[in-house]
Amino acid sequence: ASALQISRWEKKMKKNSQDVTRDVRVRSRAGFETERRGSHPYIDFRIFHSNSEIEVSVSARNVRRLLSFQRYLRSSRFFRGITVPNSSNILDDDYNGQAKCMLEKVGNWNFDIFLFDRLTNGNSLVSLTFHLFNLHGLIEHFQLDTMKLRRFLVMVQEDYHSQNPYHNAVHAADVTQAMHCYLKEPKLSKSLTPWDVLLSLIAAATHDLDHPGVNQPFLIKTNHYLATLYKNTSVLENHHWRSAVGLLRESGLFAHMSLENRQLMESQIGDLILATDISQQNEYLSMFRSHLDRGDLCLENANHRHFILQMALKCADICNPCRTWELSKQWSEKVTEEFFHQGDIEKKYHLGVSPLCDRQTETIANIQIGFMTYLVEPLFGEWARFSNTRLSQTMLGHLGLNKASWKGVQREQSGSGDDVDPAFEEMDSDILPQEPRLS
Ligand SMILES: *[C@@H]1O[C@H](CO)[C@@H](O)[C@H](O)[C@H]1NC(C)=O
Ligand SMILES: *[C@@H]1O[C@H](CO)[C@@H](O)[C@H](O)[C@H]1NC(C)=O
Ligand SMILES: [Zn+2]
Known about the structure:
By secondary structure, the chain is an all-alpha fold. It folds into 2 domains: 2-212 and 222-313, 3'5'-cyclic nucleotide phosphodiesterase, catalytic domain (Catalytic domain of cyclic nucleotide phosphodiesterase 4b2b, Orthogonal Bundle), CATH 1.10.1300.10; 318-439, 3'5'-cyclic nucleotide phosphodiesterase, catalytic domain (Catalytic domain of cyclic nucleotide phosphodiesterase 4b2b, Orthogonal Bundle). It has helices spanning 2-16, 19-23, 45-50, 60-67, 73-77, 94-103, 113-119, 124-135, 138-141, 146-159, 169-183, 186-189, 194-206, 216-221, 225-229, 235-251, 259-274, 281-294, 302-317, 325-348, 364-386, 390-414, 422-425. Helix 13 (194-206) runs parallel beside helix 19 (302-317). The radius of gyration is 21 Å and the shape is globular. The structure holds 2-acetamido-2-deoxy-beta-D-glucopyranose (NAG) (2 copies) and zinc ion (ZN). The site of one 2-acetamido-2-deoxy-beta-D-glucopyranose has 2 residues, from loops.
């Protein structure tokens, strides 16, 4: 995998070298108050809901027009009470005192990110990631300017869409927290370099950047420009990555590093983010499985480490069912809300309802059971083989209990307990790239 992966990075860097400017227009230093970036997959659902005159026979072309609306809220978001912290001491009032307290247990699997987000007034991603940079000694090791770091993290947080029920900055913070838990696992912690940790945390924090709240099939069928730009392949993940690169460059956070290192960082972050494309899971999983079968993973080898970090980020991204029921249930409701919201739009504009998105035929329980059976259990089963620790056992324990709970709900609702959503069975077949993004 090693030499192959390197050459893949290089190819991708060449192929995509112009994509940052095609996807994300980097803002000039002075232009902070103007539109941050040129073009966004911003989808303002209020437009769909409130303008009844554009209803009825709206075709994909009209939806496309709506989708290409600039994110006009963007500039105003700076006035909506998200302040740019002016010193490294962000946590200094009462709520923030409690948030600070929570950060002492940031490595606990029971960490309640929803509570943390409330205590930080919606700044969970900035607070948590800054804290983790500090905790892992990255600020010192890479001689990072804390003002630039904070500004970078604020931009990252701002580029998530807070109106998405699921794919928002809280999900990013949750994935970053999970990633931190995995980085602490003995096998990883003893072999990871500061560079690995740095890339892992940045990739986790940015992995869904600027997510439009609809999935790839939706972007393809509405002829969204991102689908064209990325040729219908890992459309969202490519956009998250290029958005992250845009913000990295814009923040100047690593301006003091060599160009070579910065390029290596950009491409390796890309490899991590692209691994979160759920439609590619089978390929990653069979590679992981055969490494484990052969027992040939050698974490002194940088390429093997990066492969493991890809798997770790994949786990972090879909770890919701491995959390406690209280947390897990909230995530399930949020993701379903986002799916159904997409389905409502698809119905309204006669676009054909995507799998899992039809509120008339789907239930949270069905979706969750299918998700767990076909995606989460296989992934975490292999992860536990790789890292057979208390954390892995805890995660598998919650997974089993949560699945049983959803089966209970399902039985109550339908009288039969064994329905598995057929949409997930199709995940194994050739239509994979057309399947909805689940995480
Ligand atoms: C940061 O803001 C606080 C008020 O929130 C102010 O007291 C302090 O002087 C500011 N620090 C700097 C360096 O501007
Ligand atoms: C992407 O998918 C659409 C719809 O299926 C198709 O019309 C288009 O040709 C595809 N583009 C590429 C580059 O494959
Ligand atoms: Zn995600």
